[in-house]
Fold these 2 entries.
Entry 1:
Amino acid sequence: MFNIILFGPPGSGKGTQSEKLIAKYNFKHLSTGDLLRSEISRKTPLGLEAKKFMDKGQLVPDEVVIGMISSALDSNRDVVGFLFDGFPRTAQQADALDKLLELKKQTINAMIALDVTEEELVKRLKKRGETSGRSDDVNEQVIRTRIGEYHQKTAPVADHYKKANKAVFVKGEGSIDTIFDALSREIDKRLPK
Ligand code: B4P
């Protein structure tokens, strides 16, 4: 199995690029944002709890997200690899992911981070808010809270993968296709021959 993490701040294009990468490489896409939004739309107890945090631009508690990922790993055994999108977002989530993969004799092969300036992130998310119906995209204050959460809790997670020599940084500004080509080159370099 070949497992990658697509990393970056809110609005950096993780969801956008993941769609293209799974089509090309056939990875199983695990987006914690999508999983949480699906729980919200089905009005499950987990979704109702998560919504309180997401509407404010805060991270959902670790135990909720880790539990969701753990069951997703268990129910997808025969896949070529996982593409983790928006997970891990805290040091505790990164440790939990290592342990869950270790139990399956698996590991993370690469963490690829998208670099985008804060002004570009705010611009993209406000624009998406005009059409997405996502409550966390409409209000600039909530967007800035999400970016603040990223700097405080998520950005340090990159060090976890830097230490393991698994971190790669790619420019996340420019056309979607140019960024996709850059990501594909990084994956191709690391795929087993
Ligand atoms: P997510 O669903 O993960 O989404 P995101 O970070 O907002 O955006 P992403 O980076 O995927 O951006 P996208 O491609 O869509 O998180 C939402 C919330 O869920 C979090 O705030 C948190 O509350 C909760 N959550 C999720 N995972 C969690 C976890 N592990 N732990 C705790 N809480 C968690 O791109 C954004 C926009 O930019 C789109 O409109 C797109 O069209 C545009 N765009 C993309 N690439 C572009 C480009 N190259 N040029 C111009 N525009 C571009």
Entry 2:
Amino acid sequence: MIFLKTDEEIELMRESNRLVGMTLGEMAKYIKPGVTPAQLDKIAKEFIMDHGAIPSFLGYKGAPGTVDFPGAICASVNEQVVHGFPTDYVLKDGDIISVDCGTEKNGFCGDSAYTFCVGEVAEDVKALLRTTKESLYQGIQKAVEGNRIGDISDAVQTYCEKRGYSVVRELVGHGIGRKMHEAPEVPNYGKRGTGPLLKKGMCIAIEPMINMGSKNVVFESDGWTVRTRDRKPSAHFEHTVAIRQGKADILSTFEFIEAVLGNNAI
Ligand code: MG
Ligand code: MG
């Protein structure tokens, strides 16, 4: 079932998503060679709780037989696509790290992700990041009343594949609201004019996961971490948006990241 949100509910979602954006801005301050994802996770967790919210990912139930998610952020390094644990790995010059963050405040969820460069990153990897981020906005442009989910999917897929990258199939974007994951699914691949109709008040998280090499991924034995099979880098950018007439309303924000990184932002 797809829940449509009232304008009041969308404003509450904007608040949760703004806090996610602020938290990612904090991450931008600390991401550099020598730092560990575990340290970033501690900063994110305290920051979210200090702002009266719940870090939604912490304790998130996994598949049967796997541990609950151990962090407030997903921290996925280099060939890791998503759902990386915040480990004690020491970030080094040239790495990339995708940070995915979720909050719950006033009963509503926020969800946004950004792939950061650690120190000086190779040009071809930066190009992957840039294309993935741009593909997110290509998808967002299609996220308007009267279109279909497939219009978003096609926009992301076409943009990335034209540039020689591949789209992960096993993981998709999603509806979001009182729960982090609601209907409908929002794949990053698909056909125009197909899938659920977009209606005013729908809120969805659009989140391209794009690989430099092949689209194939492997699930690690921890039950969570997803990495590319060929171990080439993968990028992940995500916004939560509300469907409106004419133009999507982006509820999450990269403004706090960009304020920290300035001209070095991807
Ligand atoms: Mg996310
Ligand atoms: Mg999401």
